[in-house]
Design brief:
Largest sheet: 3 strands, antiparallel
Structural class: mainly alpha
CATH class of the largest domain: Mainly Alpha
Order of helices and strands: HHHEHHEEHH
Number of helices: 7
CATH architecture of the largest domain: Orthogonal Bundle
Number of domains: 2
Distance between the termini: 51 Å
Number of strands: 3
Radius of gyration: 20 Å
Strand order of the largest sheet: 1-3-2
CATH superfamily of the largest domain: Winged helix-like DNA-binding domain superfamily/Winged helix DNA-binding domain
Amino acid sequence: MTPPPVPPPIPTGEEAARKRVGDLDVDLPSMAAISNLFRVVNAARNYIERNVLRDYNLTFSGFTALWVLWVMGSMETRHLAAEAAVTKGTLTGILKTLEDRDLVERVTPEADRRLTLVHLTRKGERRMQEIYPRFNAAERDITSDLDEQERDVFVATLRHLLGSIDQLEKQQAVKYG
């Protein structure tokens, strides 16, 4: 087994943050973990938007809405907003754009006019089949410096954090109703 690579130097912004908050009673390793998580997410998102989604005139949020519908099928707008991690108000704008491009359709069921269901159109289905292999190639490029074991540990760690956040959210819901 090869030794682990030497970690890169601490980013300038992280070092500045450490200096700024160093006198406070804060958890610097947790700060570093979350700030680097944000940096990685934003860098990956920007890379994929520039190198894949731009060719389809899509934003990352628009792609995410298409992805959720492609993978999970038709759903109510409130569920789509939650799955795409956007507000219902933001989703409205995303869906307007996607509808204008004939990639999704909103339908109001006769049985309950309060609901709005969203589904991919045939064009939306074809577009996702066209986009996703390129999207996944970018995902592969981004994670290519990790070997299989490192990727597995990384994914497990992220899932563990998601579970922790879910528990925190449930505790807050009980606390604040």
